[in-house]
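Progress note, sequence design subtask.
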């Protein structure tokens, strides 16, 4: 299409001009005074501002002078449900998983998952995260597909990208799950693997490639090998056999993913990878799989991951997990395994800020290995852009600023004291920037955040609605006991032990 004023110029929908453009393209170009043209939701030009302006005009221009323009950040693993439970149970981390899981599997309704999804999507948007994985719950909950539907609708309405994770939860199966109806009554239902897989399929059928392709669904069993410890590396005596349930889960996950062309996502720890690879013909390994954590992986397992093309996502903020073992990130990278850095969610004490996550990843790895040269800034930025896109199977579409790719763009305002002087832009982002420094966000060519303000979302209404739902679930689950006062003047946190806590609901 030719512009009306100058027959030599083409008309784009949007121009971003004057910024330092970090392309993350194969050449890893950094353009000091660069511009990006966007047409029909795709990048149509990336180059020096003078050159792009000479060839393109647009009705809408974002002046990015003094700012850094980069691909939208990608969070390859997080959890739905966390956004409304921030800080609940943070003073007793050993109880956190029980608190969250009981809440998700007993005291939620569709309103909870919708409000949580909207708040989470808004937090990610403000932090420059244009695509995020959201496993529905601490363990994925798929027995009630209306919950996944509500969460997907929330992200779709915000305008960002989502990979929704649904699949079978951890053992035991069968189990009894609870939920609240829209009329305010509590119901309990016996749930087996058949029901979980049927619910997952309903969500996949309804939402995979939905919202103009922005919403994907991954088949997401809780762990790669459900009979092993779901929170850390397996001991040698446990990592020697598979159960019939282990094999059945793999086979049914593989079947569902194959029928709908989805990817597979799960959690895995040391021992699981070798056991599955050696004994399970339907092992959840391969180029269509990425798994979270990887604490305690052996050298043999690193080689298996490289051989099978399986990707790993690393959540460095998981304190309890890191105490149980080390994710061998440098060894994985050196072996050619794709590794992404993730937030692992926004509760109880973390956030969806990927800038914080990459710093945590570097610090944790350097301390564990006693080597301050590990995970340099360029690698870390790759691990939340193009490498993260590769981990979730979308690197042909997102993760870098290249002509023809989807126009997912994050702009960081570096005209701030803690980011000046801007000697080295990549270093500044990795070492100094935070999610609060994001000024503009574009997803599929649409400006969703302009000058730090959402353009399609009523932020105050989202926050108010989230607060109401959080208060409701705290009352239902009697979580008020985990809303604790700060402890002053002590070197160690104390908490009543044992905490009065029922595994089952008492509506």
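Output:
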């Amino acid at each position: 299409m030719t512009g009306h004023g100058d027959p030599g110029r083409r008309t784009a929908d949007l121009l971003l001009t004057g910024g330092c453009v970090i392309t993350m393209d194969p050449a890893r170009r950094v353009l000091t005074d660069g511009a990006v043209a966007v047409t029909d939701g795709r990048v149509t030009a990336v180059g020096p501002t003078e050159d792009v302006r000479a060839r393109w005009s647009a009705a809408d221009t974002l002046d990015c002078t003094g700012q850094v323009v980069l691909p939208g950040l990608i969070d390859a693993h997080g959890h739905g449900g966390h956004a409304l439970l921030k800080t609940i149970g943070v003073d007793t981390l050993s109880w956190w998983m029980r608190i969250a899981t009981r809440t998700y599997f007993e005291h939620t309704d569709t309103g909870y998952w919708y409000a949580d999804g909207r708040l989470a999507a808004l937090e990610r948007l403000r932090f420059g995260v244009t695509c995020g994985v959201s496993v529905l719950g601490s363990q994925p909950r798929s027995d009630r597909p209306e919950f996944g539907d509500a969460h997907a609708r929330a992200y779709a309405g915000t305008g960002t990208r989502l990979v929704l994770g649904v699949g079978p939860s951890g053992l035991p199966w069968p189990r009894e799950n609870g939920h609240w109806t829209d009329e305010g009554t509590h119901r309990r239902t016996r749930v087996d693997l058949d029901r979980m897989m049927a619910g997952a399929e309903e969500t996949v059928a309804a939402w995979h490639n939905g919202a103009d392709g922005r919403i994907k669904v991954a088949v997401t069993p809780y762990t790669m090998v459900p009979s092993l410890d779901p929170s850390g590396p397996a001991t040698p005596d446990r990592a020697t056999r598979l159960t019939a349930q282990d094999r059945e889960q793999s086979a049914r996950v593989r079947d569902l993913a194959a029928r709908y062309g989805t990817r597979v996502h799960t959690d895995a720890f040391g021992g699981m990878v070798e056991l599955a690879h050696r004994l399970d013909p339907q092992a959840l390994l391969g180029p269509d799989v990425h798994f979270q954590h990887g604490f305690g992986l052996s050298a043999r397992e690193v080689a298996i991951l490289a051989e099978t093309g399986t990707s790993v996502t690393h959540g460095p903020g998981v304190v309890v997990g890191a105490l149980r073992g080390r994710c061998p990130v440098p060894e994985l990278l050196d072996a050619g395994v794709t590794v992404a850095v993730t937030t692992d969610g926004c509760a109880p004490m973390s956030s969806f800020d990927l800038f914080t996550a990459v710093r945590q990843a570097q610090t944790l790895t350097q301390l564990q290995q006693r080597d301050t040269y590990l995970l340099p800034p360029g690698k870390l930025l790759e691990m939340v852009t193009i490498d993260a896109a590769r981990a979730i199977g979308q690197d042909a579409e997102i993760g870098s600023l290249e002509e023809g790719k989807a126009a997912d763009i994050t702009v960081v305002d570096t005209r701030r004291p803690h980011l000046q002087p801007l000697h080295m832009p990549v270093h500044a982002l990795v070492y100094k920037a935070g999610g609060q420094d994001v000024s503009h966000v574009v997803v599929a060519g649409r400006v969703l955040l302009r000058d730090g303000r959402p353009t399609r979302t009523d932020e105050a209404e989202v926050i108010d609605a989230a607060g109401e739902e959080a208060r409701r679930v705290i009352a239902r689950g009697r979580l008020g006991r985990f809303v604790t006062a700060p402890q002053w003047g002590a070197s160690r946190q104390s908490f009543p032990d044992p905490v009065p806590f029922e595994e089952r609901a008492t509506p």
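The chain has two domains: 10-71+403-454, 73-391. Work on this subtask will continue into the next period as scheduled.
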